[in-house]
Design a protein that fits this description.
The protein is α/β, with parallel strands linked by helices and 329 residues long. It has twelve helices and twelve strands. The strands form two sheets. Strands 8-7-6-9-10-11-12 form a seven-stranded parallel sheet, with helices on both faces. A five-stranded parallel sheet has the order 2-1-3-4-5. Helix 4 packs across helix 6. The protein binds 2-keto-D-gluconic acid. The site of 2-keto-D-gluconic acid has 8 residues, from loops.
Amino acid sequence: MSAKQKILVARAIFPDQLADLESTYEVISNQADDVFSPDLLRQHLASVDAALVAGSERIDASALADAKHLKIVANISVGYNNFDVPAISKAGIMATNTPDVLTDTTADFGFALLMATARRITESERWIRDGQWAKWSIVHNPLGVDVHGSTLGIIGMGRIGQGIAKRGLGFGMKVIYNNRKRLSEADEQACGATYVDKESLLRQADHVILVVPYSAESHHLIGAKEIALMKPSATLVNIARGGIVDDVALAAALKAKTIFAAGLDVFEGEPVVHPDLLKLSNVVLAPHIASASEKTRRAMVALAIKNASEALKGNRPPSLINPEVYKAK
Ligand code: 8YV
């Protein structure tokens, strides 16, 4: 009997999913969940046929330097800015992500963060815990801005952006969007969204939400200049990636109250949060949890496993990012 194929699982996964994987493959797991150093990651990648990784693992030429048997890197994530795709393709390795399975969970969270930001929910909770409730007043306790009937501006109108737009319709919002590519008329109608240029969106929206993939092009897409276009009563929500917003410029704007508030699930330099943001009360902070329901995280892991196992059987993995590398049997 031939030896089992070998898989690296670079972050902790659900124990039953790991046990299933171990019944078919030799597995190097990391249930302790300590992020591998670049050296250790390179060493592990040198010994396996497939790897399941997440945003914490940077997969580039240096990580792949000794990866002689590696056929696939399967990201447990839809975003794949942790992948240097040209370098992975150059090494003849397939790369996959986990689209679709997280769309609704992530759209739910985007909307939840928008609501929490507009209605100052986390700040209100701190207010109670700090014993402030006795100071309740009609005009002074945490007063928010409305969500229903307002204008929602979505930057990045992929599957998740469209999911957020549909939720906005339920709140009677006017939905405007900006995207590299305009949607088809049918898709625009399905989510009741109107295309506008970025500057008009920033000027008109009461709530701006960012759902664009990170790239050199989208780095600091929202900086001091863009924030200055927003209404003083507006909120800014980022569930996309750290680096799309200039966090220093945002902290300065929040401190000066040139916008009302921000809700952030992603940060430049995660897991470190800029200290200025930590000091502000008009920002809601979340630790990159937009896809984090158990059902969805399980579905993401299952899809990554499916991608890896299909590749190891010589089949085309369902969510292949670099099809030029796939050689049909
Ligand atoms: C992941 C995400 O949890 O899918 C994405 O793009 O940002 C999250 O769902 C995170 O990237 C961990 O890999």
